[in-house]
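Box 3.1. Reading complex inputs
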Amino acid sequence: MAYKHLGKDFLPHDVVAKVTGEAKYAEDFRVEGMVFARLLNSPFPHARIRSLDTSEALKMPGVLGILTADDVKNPPAPEQALLTNEPVYVGDPVLLVAAESETLAQDAIEKIKIDWEPLPFHVDALQSLHPDRPNARSDGNVGAGGVEFQTLKWTKEDFAAAAPGQMPMGKAAQEWAFGDLEATFAKCKLVYDESFVHGSNSHHSMEPRSAMAYWQNGKCFLHVSSQSQSFIVPALAGMIGIPPTDLHVIAEFCGGGFGSKGGAYALQALPALMSRKIGRPVMMRISRAEEYYNGSARNGFQGRVKLGFGENGKLLAADLYIVQENGGYNSFPDFRNAADALSMVYQPEAMRWRGMPVHGNSIRRSAQRGPGYNQLVHIIEPLLDKAARELKVDRLAIRLLNAPETRSPVGAKRTPVASCYLKDALAKGATQFKWDERKKLSGQRTGSKVIGVGMGQAYHPAGFNGFDGLLRIAPDGKLFIHSGVGNLGTFSHSSTSRVAAEVLKMDWDDCVVIRGDSRKHLPWNIGQFGSNTNYTMTRTNFVAATDAVNKLKEIAAKQFGGSPEGYEIDGKRVFSKASPGTGMTYAQAAQRAMQLGGKFDGHELPADINPMTKASATALAGTGLIGVAKDKLPLDGAIAAYAVGFVEIELDLETGKYRILDYVGVADCGTVIHPAGLETQIKSGAIQGFGVAGLERIVYDPQNGLPASVGFYQAKPPTYGDIAQLMQVSGVDKPDPTGALGTKGIGEPLLGCAAAALLCAISDALGGHVFNRTPVMPDMILNHAAGRSPSHRPLQVNCQ
Amino acid sequence: MADFKGIPLIESSEPAEGVARRLSRREFIKRVIASGAVASSASFMVGGMAGCTPRRAAVAGSVERLLSLNVNGQLRRVDVLPQETLAMTLRYKLGLTGTKLSCDRAECGACTVMIDDVTVYACSTLTHSVRARKVVTIEGLRGPNGELHPVQQAFVEELSPQCGFCTPGQVVAAVALLKKNPKPTREQARHAMSGNLCRCGAYDNYLNGIMRACGNTAEISHGV
């Protein structure tokens, strides 16, 4: 279908500000009388404060106030504490000092006397499940991502039952199953039982999570680094202890989040609390090192998977157990998402999943691009290649054989997916990559260098419904599209707003996207995370624009007679179908709406919209024609996005290093609404995937619980030097039947498929050796190539 | 010229003798230590913030001196502490917040500015060391009528930025590259830009932007 806007490139309104330095991030704001605050972060992985003496610090001239755990209302455990008297990782914020200058605040921290009682800790989730080993928290050791907070240990017998190097499997906190597992394994031709590790890695957002707050007339103004705009307001207001209507969040730009800034987080609230306490605007800068202490990282996995294949390579049965290390506080259900990914991408006939989210005394974990869904394919894709080799099936063929289709079921509930074109993506990528020719290069050796080729697949849910759309046709005929989604850097705040222009048939030059500041009267929208923006926001803009179209027609019918159905729009005018000369411009209709009042100009609002949308629409009432509605469009099935990647590498067996020569990425994201945006996401998602697969890791000193990766150079994200020489991208471009105008999300799987492809290519270059560990670091490659044993113990985590 | 532990403190219009044109990281650290800025044993020390507050509270052991800086072609007179970094002076005293701080330790390039047409990390450059030298920041790249610099224009057209936080540094680094090498190959640009991290991973788009800006259109690669 030909669209006026969708599928076409445009100039996003915020890109010029980004290249000129005019884009303002949280730390770029200044307010008269602004002072600085510094955190005292826990120096211990787990400890309790016996006594705290801040008197000397408070006596220092220029020191304005100290906020401690006793001054804040912490949420119930194991939610992240705002400030704590019992920190559970090195870097856990203990107290905040405000002073006239930042150095002074830091000097004051030096004067604070704390009598610490060090408590037992661990940096290995699996070990901590042993009955004789300590827990990370004194009030429980298991619980995150929807699992009840509890104490749950395995028995010594559970540990003894595992063979050396094999993961023990005691009682799980949560599990599900479908099919007859035992009988299905019994009929398998090939069965693997593999233990694996997936490391943690930092989000590495370029903008540290600095924040600045001040209060005026009882309202809090908060400049934060956030992926999301409207979505964080209620939770953040809750942390500050005020009604959401008293909180103004300014988050026009966000210097990277990748999941870590999707929801409200404690560090956003602290400057607001301090500012209220001392009556001054407060800037709290977070340093790069602090990002590695009190920032966040992806959940780490220790796991075991049993896979049973038929003779042709079909995955028949799967039994997955994941122990998730989720840091000291609540985290994301990666351990459960991983099971959905296995059930989705490989479609086993029978499957069991068991999960165990375990607290550890290490950096806070939160969602990171493809939380769980991606870790799963990083582990399984190389094993799929192993099976293909053993069963003498082509690696593309085994994927096509197992791949889901539209209406294939996902997860324990066997929910069908609304659309799936993974097979199309595989076929398209294989053609573009020339898989049949390239696979012959596999293992080709020149001196110490050997060629490896691989492909990877990934899946992620890709949309929600039930949020609100809000827009206004001003009396001059311009369209103002209010978006509360946030600005992650994907330009989707605008590409999804273009749906409203599409429905109203308007020129993009006549449209303005309003966003970035809750004072701008924004609707209730979900945050910008989880590959959902395209789907969710095109729906909200679709329903709001449809509401506006209906109102235009009603106004015309009132003016010129007849029924609204007798009228049509063309982007500038609403006119009679029978007599196109009879009609009025959008500008005239908007002016008429203001005269008519009621629902037309926002004085009467739908009963089912969110209070935030209602407040915003009420504020706009009387200023034009208001289009406002809640997304109640039908949603049949789970919304799912898929991506595939193909990669060729040249691996040096003498150094363990490799060069990525070529990358092909294909996305199944429904209708492509912004080709340039999709291109940059496929390429850059792949680059992040290369980092997860082969560069980034988090290292902890097991003796003292100290993080060793506290700088870019110690936990290196990909640089210009690590990218593929050539990157090719494309979209399947087949519409999702349930999405407004056929589009769905795509962000997360673009990382997973590339990481999996790279891991498969490394394995391919090494003659099929599977490490069962991510990331694969050069020393692991080197040790393997030299026939040496690895430098880490089996299942060891947070190590080099 | 008066000298305080190797750091010239008195305002001078002449380039300081012995100040290396390109200050090494080692040299920078030596100077900061000499200035007493790292006397604290804090685990999470932030350098260069002393005195950077609207109220200018006196900070023990530090004295501000008035300097004249040439920033974006303008003479800017500013009080500067001995241990103050150029990034902090630009951001907190001259209102030039386009220069970003991401690592504050010469790892990422978000604070890249040009000193006499050569890129430096402003987070690791002492403001005192750039007296009477030509400082150009992201804010100084637009043309006389506000038009975008060709690199900025090309980055817009190639949709190079994503989150945008590293972008000012990427722009400045690319401008400096084209001053030195007006028509680099894609591979040369990749090497020249390797001091600038982009966590979004938009490297390919930045390289396309540079290829467009320098007219090397044959090496623009969309790979579609």
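In summary: Residues 63-138 of chain B form a domain with the Ubiquitin-like (UB roll) fold (CATH 3.10.20.30).
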